[in-house]
Amino acid sequence: MAVHSATDDLYNAADDLIGRNLKAGRGDKAAFIDISGPTTYAQLDARVNQFANVLAAHNVRIEERVLMCLLDTIDWPTCFLGAIRAGAVPIPVNTRLTAEDYKFMLDDSRARVLVVSEVLLDAFLPHLADHPFLDTVIVSGADGKGYALLKDELNGKSTDYETAPTRASDMCFWLYTSGTTGKPKGAVHLQTHLIDTANLYAIPVLGIHEKDTCFSAAKLFFAYGLGNGLTFPMSVGATSVLLAGPPDAKSVARILREEKPTIFYGVPTLYGMLLASGELPKKGEHAVRLATSAGEALPADLLRRFKEATGVDILDGLGSTEMLHIFLSNTLDNIIPGSSGKPVPGYDLRLVDDDGTILAGAGEMGMLEVSGPTSAILYWNQRDKSRETFQGMWTRTGDKYVRDENGVYTHAGRSDDMLKVGGIYVSPVEVESAIVRHEKVLEVAVVGHADKDGLIKPKAFIVLRDGIRPDDALSDEIKAFVKAELASYKYPRWIEFLDELPKTATGKIQRFKLRDAT
Description:
CATH topology of the domain at 13-28 and 37-191: Rossmann fold
Structural class: alpha/beta
Distance between the termini: 49 Å
CATH architecture of the domain at 13-28 and 37-191: 3-Layer(aba) Sandwich
Number of helices: 14
Number of strands: 26
Shape: globular
Mean pLDDT: 93
Strand content: 15-25%
Radius of gyration: 23 Å
């Protein structure tokens, strides 16, 4: 597929994603299905134009920012694409953050407009008067608590709009990193980045086509979910199912049964939850032809069990907010359990050691760096972190990987999660993969913990399956199990049983919280 170069040619991402479907005669086809029902591509085009006219009515100019804190309903693509069509810069943010997080993001971005779901408004009310650049608040819902309602703002606005004269190399949208460590960082993406992820990954790797129906458990504010639930289906005229509420096992299973998506996008934690819940549709009870996983390494055992239960393969891959979507992936004709696969064509990958030396040999562990057309150009207002991450053509991922003689990459943990035990690097992911194979274990996270001599050893935080009671005997049993699976120095010296692991809204385990608790 052709890849857009970030040139000075006129190009607008919203105009492309919507226009290609109208030109193909798909105006009457459902683009999105949410709790209120389907919205066709023609209806979406009208709503997007109306929101662009809303921004014009509030004197929002090109490149001014629009912060979006919205549940996954039709209002999400309406506002996101409407802002882009108007030349403004939408900033979708995590819907499960604190008031302090939102205060930081509004200040950091200097957003002129906030669009927020009614049920999320309370986290903004205490500080809305404190932002000198924010002059418009619009609420998606029935009660704006004194602020304008989105439905009223859209009502009566023209369904025509002349797309802003944006260029391919213009700033298009931001995505704040999930904030697992430190302050959130606003990754700035360009107009061409959305369609390039579809052309490089979704179309050639997933084989997505206009007859597909997509469902992403990962929310639209997340880079992974944005591609899954908006860019990819719109790139080919497929349909996307949106879930406003949390992606718990029961809700996800209901959508798989009732809406019959053909492509399902999940994360390892969710696959484990589905398998443990008893809710997962079995073979013949769903229409899924392909599933994907990202966010964290997918244990080989989860891959096997999901395939046995559903008949569906999971393609595990690696992406990032900085690269917008997956650049390293397994493929249907080459699934290597426990690995992230091979580079997606169009991206170059390399491993470097702590001194920056490129590692060319098989079996060497190094920091993964990636070069490709979808890399963010910087972190807003964070010059030092930008220079650390975006180094010329290369973007540092923060992930440690090993590449084998066949060019297959296997995840070895985050650089800041790696443990050095007795002078030897130990991958927490490897230890976790061993522990989770124990029949009584549902979820696990491994972090470093100092012993009485101040030396780092692995510590495991474990969530047990329903009905299993924790005790010292079980702890010893799991330690012995790991010793039998891995080199003896890798076993967890301590085990702590928890009811649940701390996670971000996108399902990533927040290991830094576990490290802080040790």
